[in-house]
């Protein structure tokens, strides 16, 4: 949200009725839509979901309606468990609520734990950060250069990266045919991997030619 | 970041009917519309379904965003286009039994939008207060 919108929203929020409506709509509208999207993404009909939750199709239909849905926290917890996603219910300041409820590509379509690429991305990012330092050192851009002149260190690191790549690859395979968000993550991972490979190859060539020159 | 870019179509005469409609809503309806539109804009078209959205039968490409507030039901008509991953808002109304006139009006505005793509503007919430000549 840009600053102008935030400021305009703040002006509106000075009205208590507006603040109450802000909270109410973010719960009733978003929960109803998420309930439907979660079910659709799992390929379930309302009847099938009702059977799994031990309730009626009519109850599911009401829950998916922003007009009639008044789910209890207990029902939401059962939903979250069934679809294997997290659930947040807490009180919060309005300024933070505005940030939290800003829609983005992950705000409605939530992947179950088995398809949650967030953890893999963190792993790749941490390896990438380590790798950036290593590449910089190999190319003589770091004061740590003396610590990493052994090509064996480089190969050991490559094995680590390969392990992370395999893990990411397995996740990608799991996601094949997945949703739009997973596709975005998959593409980002692939681009990152290609860039990383290019940088590693460049660093490796540089190291080997330096080693060759030193030996010669 | 949203998947869909939400645009609004001005009236052929230069007013901003969508903004005027939104600015006239009460707090409940305004918030309901903002949330529904914001949430849908992050989703594939396959998720644009009832009760939040419905296609307008007899009006190809057009659909309506549905929401309630202050004990009233509202419809905002729009269409998927003019370009890929764009959804253009055409006009909004309080729901009544027969909305054929309003739907015809929206269809006319859709044709205007197709022919005057440059006049479309990004719909941002909350809309700025309208000048007299934009109402």
* Unreliable parts of chain A: 174-179
Query: Oligomer, anyone?
Result: heterodimer
**How confident overall, as mean pLDDT of chain B?**
94
Rg for CA atoms of chain B: 14 Å
Total of helices of chain A: 9
What is the first-to-last residue Cα distance of chain B?
30 Å
Biggest contact: A-B, 35 and 30 residues
Please provide the count of β strands of chain B: 6
The helix/strand order of chain A is: HHHHHHHHH
Question: Can you offer a commentary on this structure?
Answer:
The complex is a heterodimer of chains A (216) and B (135). Helix content of chain A is 70%, strand content 0%. The model of chain A is unreliable at 174-179 (pLDDT under 50). Chain A has nine helices and no strands. Chain A starts with a helix and ends with a helix. The radius of gyration of chain A is 25 Å and the shape is elongated. Chain A is an all-alpha fold. Chain B has 135 residues and is of the alpha+beta class. Chain B is 27% helix and 26% strand. Chain B contains three helices and six strands; from the N terminus they run E-H-H-E-E-E-E-H-E. Chain B has helices spanning 17-23, 27-40, 100-115, and strands spanning 5-8, 53-55, 62-69, 72-80, 86-94, 121-122. In chain B, strands 2-3-4-5-1-6 form a six-stranded mixed beta sheet. In chain B, strand 4 and strand 5 (86-94) form a beta hairpin. The interface between A and B is medium-sized, with 35 and 30 residues.
What is the compact description of this entry?
The complex is a heterodimer of chains A (216) and B (135). Chain A has 216 residues and is mainly α. Chain A has nine helices and no strands.
Question: Which terms summarize this structure?
Answer:
heterodimer, A: 216 residues, mainly alpha, 9 helices, elongated, B: 135 residues, alpha+beta, six-stranded mixed β-sheet, 3 helices, 6 strands, globular
Explain the layout of strands and helices.
The complex is a heterodimer of chains A (216) and B (135).
Chain A: H1 3-13, H2 16-41, H3 46-53, H4 57-63, H5 73-83, H6 94-100, H7 118-138, H8 151-175, H9 180-215
Helix pairs in contact in A: 3-4, 7-8, 7-9, 8-9
Chain B: E1 5-8, H1 17-23, H2 27-40, E2 53-55, E3 62-69, E4 72-80, E5 86-94, H3 100-115, E6 121-122
Parallel strand pairs in B: 1-5
Antiparallel strand pairs in B: 1-6, 2-3, 3-4, 4-5
């Amino acid at each position: 949200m840009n600053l102008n919108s935030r400021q305009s929203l703040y002006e509106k929020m000075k009205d208590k009725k507006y603040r109450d409506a802000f909270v109410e709509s973010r719960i009733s509208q978003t929960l109803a839509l998420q309930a439907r999207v979660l079910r659709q993404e799992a390929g379930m009909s309302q009847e099938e979901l009702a059977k799994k939750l031990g309730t009626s199709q009519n109850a599911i239909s009401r829950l998916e309606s922003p007009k009639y849905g008044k789910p209890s926290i207990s029902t939401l917890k059962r939903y979250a468990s069934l679809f294997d996603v997290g659930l947040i219910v807490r009180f919060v300041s309005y300024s933070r609520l505005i940030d939290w409820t800003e829609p983005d590509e992950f705000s409605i379509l939530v992947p179950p734990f088995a398809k949650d690429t967030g953890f893999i991305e963190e792993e790749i990012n941490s390896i990438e950060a380590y790798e950036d330092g290593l590449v910089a050192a190999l190319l003589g851009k770091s004061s740590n250069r003396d610590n990493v002149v052994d090509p064996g260190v480089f190969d050991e690191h490559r094995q680590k990266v390969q392990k992370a790549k395999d893990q990411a690859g397995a996740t990608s395979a799991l996601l094949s045919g997945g949703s739009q968000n997973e596709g975005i993550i998959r593409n980002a991972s692939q681009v990152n991997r290609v860039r990383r490979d290019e940088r590693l190859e460049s660093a490796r060539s540089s190291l080997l030619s330096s080693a060759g020159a030193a030996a010669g | 970041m949203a998947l869909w870019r939400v645009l609004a179509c001005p009236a052929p005469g230069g007013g901003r009917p969508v903004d005027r409609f939104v600015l006239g809503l009460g707090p409940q309806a305004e918030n309901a519309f903002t949330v529904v539109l914001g949430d849908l804009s992050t989703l594939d078209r396959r998720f644009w379904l009832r009760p939040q959205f419905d296609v307008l039968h007899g009006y190809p490409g057009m659909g309506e965003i549905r929401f309630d507030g202050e004990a009233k039901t509202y419809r905002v008509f729009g269409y998927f286009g003019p370009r890929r991953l764009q959804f253009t808002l055409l006009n909004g109304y309080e729901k009544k039994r027969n909305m054929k006139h309003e739907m015809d009006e929206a269809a006319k505005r859709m044709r205007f939008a197709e022919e005057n793509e440059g006049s479309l503007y990004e719909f941002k919430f909350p809309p700025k207060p309208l000048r007299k000549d934009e109402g």
